[in-house]
UniProtKB/TrEMBL annotation:
Organism whose genome encodes this protein: Streptomyces subrutilus
Name of the molecule in the record: AMP-dependent synthetase
PANTHER family, per the entry: BLR5969 PROTEIN (PTHR43845:SF1)
InterPro entries given in the database record: AMP-binding_CS, ANL_N_sf
Length: 425
């Protein structure tokens, strides 16, 4: 299926999708520019896009594949693609793989997750199969035991590992702990979640010959978002023209941002999907134009990935920055925010995963490093120590763990950045 004209897509959605018909009811019939249209409201979209009595789809669900998605809320929902739409999806994404460094003949291990309607494993495998360069595909999956994955990678001389940062880091930790060398690995392709500096250090320690790059920017709900841009910053991508249109909108006004370096939220319009139209759909991320090339943008993280502890709002990026500032020696290989409640107050625990080679180095100064991380975080979020003094919340604390002990989503294998362990009624 080829990309369609925006005006045709708008007209088709208005006539065939009850959801878009209602959303555009007050617009003139000739509205055919993105800026003429409202941004989709997530809650309303997913309320209408239900398995029963669906009001988003433009026709009956008679030929399609159904995938499960967390959308931007973390609550599983369903996204559908016709076979033609899926072919366009994976073919376009596969073309972008050449920008990651994929070379003819590369042996690529697909370590993403499969089953339970999850798309990433099939998506990456099909994208590799539709890439414009020959490659050897190794469909191992992220759920396979590391005890069998590592020998398979070694025996088949895998050169490229593709998976979530969490999966790649667990593999790296295991190879270091077991003193296994996977010298054939020369390229690590991550996707599905952000890669942080502490994780990059762990991957470099385990795979010193490998470059670490983004596999590309896409999601099963929003579709094609960004093709990798070769260069030192793995966060930089460009839109999959002509199959999608990426906008960066002002947080307060929803006006399109055009100048480089000004952050805003990412909104996408898919020009190849008709069964489940995606028009000015919030991708759930923040980004900024880089000005380095046509349509080049830098992903800045999730739009609202954080937690509320008592009266204090904290974001995972705040904690990542605090660790980066305090951990100059590279002792930390992972971070998770754990919220608990006891004695009538909330409390935040920073769960830090020690790098595999760090225990000996850390023994003497683990407590000092923990105090330094807490000081850094309290500096950028002074409301937290103020709330401690007021008796609203418990003091920040640090809990040490191994990377393999960090909680992950059992379906996707992605690291759960925030664990809320507070009891609910």
């Amino acid at each position: 299926m080829s990309a369609q004209q925006l005006s045709d897509l708008i007209r088709f959605a208005r006539h065939n999708s009850p959801f878009y018909q209602d959303l555009y009811a007050s617009l003139p019939s000739h509205a055919d520019r993105l800026t003429d249209l409202p941004v989709v409201e997530q809650k309303a979209f997913w309320a209408a896009n239900s398995p029963h009595e669906n009001r988003v789809l433009t026709g009956p669900l008679s030929e399609a594949t159904v995938y499960k998605t967390g959308g931007t809320t973390g609550s599983p929902k369903f996204s559908v693609y016709t076979r033609d739409e899926w072919r366009t999806f994976v073919t376009s994404f596969g073309q972008g793989l050449v920008d990651t460094g994929l070379r003819p003949g590369h042996r690529v291990a697909d370590l993403f997750y499969a089953g339970e309607l999850y798309a990433s494993f099939l998506f990456v495998l099909d994208s590799l199969a539709h890439a414009p360069v020959d490659n050897v595909r190794l469909p191992i999956g992220g759920g396979a035991p590391l005890e069998s994955t590592i020998p398979t990678l070694r025996d088949l001389a895998a050169q490229v590992l593709a998976g979530t940062p969490t999966t790649l880091c667990r593999l790296a930790e295991q190879t270091i702990a077991s003193a296994v060398r996977l010298d054939s690995v020369e390229l690590l392709l991550f996707g599905g979640e952000a890669l942080f500096d502490d994780q990059r250090r762990l991957l470099t320690a385990a795979f010193p010959r490998a470059e670490v790059r983004s596999v590309g920017y896409a999601s099963v709900d929003a579709g094609l978002l960004g093709r990798p841009v070769p260069g030192p910053d793995a966060r930089v991508h460009r839109a999959f023209t002509p199959y999608s249109v990426v906008e960066i909108l002002d947080d307060a006004t929803d006006e399109p941002i055009t100048e480089p370096g000004r952050p805003g939220r990412v909104v996408v319009t898919s020009l190849f999907r008709r069964l489940m139209p995606i028009i000015r759909y919030p991708a759930g991320d923040r980004a900024e134009w880089t000005g380095t090339g046509p349509g080049h943008f830098r992903i800045l993280g999730r739009a609202e990935e954080g937690v509320r502890v008592g009266p204090v709002s904290l974001y995972t990026q705040d904690a990542q920055d605090a660790v980066a500032a305090a951990d100059t020696a590279g002792h930390v290989a992972g971070l998770q925010l754990v919220v608990r409640r006891w004695d009538g107050r909330d409390g935040l625990v920073l769960r830090l995963a020690a790098a595999p080679d760090a225990p000996g180095r850390l023994a003497a100064d683990r407590d000092a490093l923990a105090r330094s991380v807490v000081r850094e975080l309290e500096t950028v979020r002074p409301l937290y120590p103020d709330s401690v003094r007021a008796g609203f919340v418990h003091p920040l604390s640090v809990e040490w763990a191994r990377h393999r002990d960090l909680a992950v989503n059992p379906r996707s294998g992605k690291l759960v950045r925030v664990l809320d362990e507070r009891p609910t009624a």
